[in-house]
Each structure stands twice: as structure tokens, then as C-alpha cells.
Amino acid sequence: MLRRLARAMVPGLRVPWTRWSRSWAGVPIQVVDLRSDTVTRPGPAMRRAMAEAVVGDDDYGEDPTVHELQEKAAKLLGVEQTLFVPTNTMANLISVMGHCRRRGSQVLLGQECHLHVYEQGGVAQIAGVHSNPLPDMPHGTLDLNELERALTRGFGSPYHPVCELVCLENTHSSAGGRVLPIDYLRQVCLLAHTHGARIHLDGARLMNAAVALHVPPASLVEHCDSVSFCFSKGLGAPVGALVGGSKDFIEEAWRLRKALGGGMRQAGVLAAAALVGLAEAEEVLPKDHENAQRFAKGLQDLASPICSVDPATVETNMVLVQVAGLPPAELCQRLQAVSTEEVTWTGCAVSVLLFPWTEHSVRIVWHRDVSAQDTELALRKWEFVLRQLRP
Questions:
Q1: 3-state SS assignment for residue 320
Q2: pLDDT at 20 over 60
Q3: Which residues of 175-198 are buried (b: 16+ CB within 10 A; e: fewer)?
Q4: 207 with 220: CB under 8 angstroms?
Q5: What's this model's pTM, rounded to 2 decimal places?
């Protein structure tokens, strides 16, 4: 199953048997999975919390652990209420539907943002909302002049779709985990509200942004009308996300969740895992950021003409590596494969799992299952592969 999935994500990719082997020529294989922060596994504390969770029927609003999670998250995010949902994709769709009540209304967003690229156009095929994608700046922001032009173009016009919503993403995944500055959020809010539009923040990795800026998450949400918040990425829970906003907005979100099939029963089992992830975030996330920085600086020190990275762009748990001279898919294959030459040269057998990100880059993501030692192993494997590629 995992082999089929990997081949589907990377055409032509052969996932080596070493991913599931215990050793190579008697040397234990160490797998460092840097594909995403979604690949984490619940630790002992999280599994124990799930097993011992007090539960009820959340579809009736009777699960006490879900209530606890929703109340804690509302205080953390500085919103009136939150609603627990299965995924951040659903949280984003619910938010768009909650703001854009008339079919054919318009949402402005970045052309590379997750909501536009990776959520199957749900806002169009399910909500009947027209997306107007704008070019993303390198930092993950939108050009404010371009945004204002888009907001004003159809304002009061009977010929253009009515723009009801602007969607932002923080941190911005396709920009390599970049953090949106608070002043930028304030300016977007002013522009949108001036022209009658609202702001939704895709905060799937909002805690990473807050840790990077050394501010409470509420400081990043206060300029937005709604927020989504994911527990199954950097926070390490197996399932779950939240929609946050005003009391009236969340009442409508509850109805939309039901319509989309997101009503859950004894969801406290999942909420318990999310509570543990939330409690551990301030301890875990800085380590992820430090490991990402350590790797970026180490790769830069290798001074390879094939792979380049700017450590100044590494703000959270992601590193975007530019690749020249070979397809990124081939680089990923070489990093995954284990060989006798590697064991002889390094004394280790390491399989680094990655996906190509663009035609000329790979994205590397740190998470709670990748330690500082794992980071050094990955860097050593990268050095070995780059040496093999020298002419």
C-alpha cells in the first residue's frame, strides 16, 4: 500500500525494500522520514490519553473531552468559539461556505496556497464559490496593490462576482513554511473590511508561526474573521482540526459540518490526542525549527552546485532545497536507496524519505519523530549522495 502511494505521488519512483528491511548487510537501516509533518505516530502519552478519554456523542454535543479541547483552543486563538472537525481541509471548506452564503460569490487567495491547490477545488465543486487566485510573493504573502485591485474590480458591479472573502495561509507551505508578518495581516484586514470582504486564515501550522514570532497564536488571529487549526501536522495528533470564529459563525459551521459528513460520535478519543499535542507544542516545535535550521546550514556548508538552500528563508520546520543538474525525483530516489558503498563510506545505512516539490526543488519537513541525531544522519546521507553525483 505504501509503495503504491509513493509511486502515485512521484511517477517512476521505486520505493526501496530497505524502507521495511531491518538491516543491510548486517547494518541496521535507519529511516528518516522528512516527507511531511503528517507522518508522525502517537507517542506513549498520546496513546494513553486516547485510551483513557472520557467520551460522549459529539454529534449531540455531549462529548466532554471535545468540549475541553474546543474551550482551550478558543482561549488560545482568541476567538469566541471553536468547532472540532476531522480535517483541516474540511475546516477550510466550512469556513469558505460560512462566509460565502451566495453561490457564485468570489474568494481571493494565493495561487500556490493549500486551499487552492491541494483541496480538490472543493470551494467550487461543493460550495459553488468562484476562486480568484493571485500571484504569491516569495514570502508567502500577496501583493497588497494587486489585492486591492482585485477587491475593487467588482465592488458594486452587476457584472463581476461579489468578493466576500480573502483567504491567507500561515505558515505558507508552498513558500517553505514562511511566516506571515503581523503588520501584513493587519493591512490585509483593513483592505478587505474596507471593501466588504472578510478574512479566513488557513492556520494549519499556526503554532509554528506563533513559535517563530514568539507571540501568542491569538496575535495572529485577531485580524481575521475565522481560522482553521490542524492537530495532525506539527502537533502530532493522528486526526483532527478546528474551525474558530464568532459564536454565530460557529453555529453555522456546526450545520455545515453535519452536511459535509463531519459529525462524529465518541470523538473524545481523537480530541484527547489533540489536547496532548497542544500541551507539548511549545516544547516540541522549537526543536523542529532548530533541526531545520541546522540542516539548512549544514547543506549550505557542503557548497554543492547541485543543491542549494538559503538558511535565512528557513523560519519554521521546512526547508526548500533548489536542485540543479538532475530531476528532483532522481535525487529523492538516491536519498531513499541504501547501498554497500554507503555502508562502506559512512558506516551507516540511512534511507531518507522525501517527495519532489517542484520541477527544481524538494521540500523537507521536520516533526517530532525526527531528532537532532536523525537530522545529522540525513545530512550525512545527503553528503554521500552529492559526492556520488560529482563528475
A1: strand
A2: no
A3: bbbbbbeeebbebbbebbeebebb
A4: no
A5: 0.92
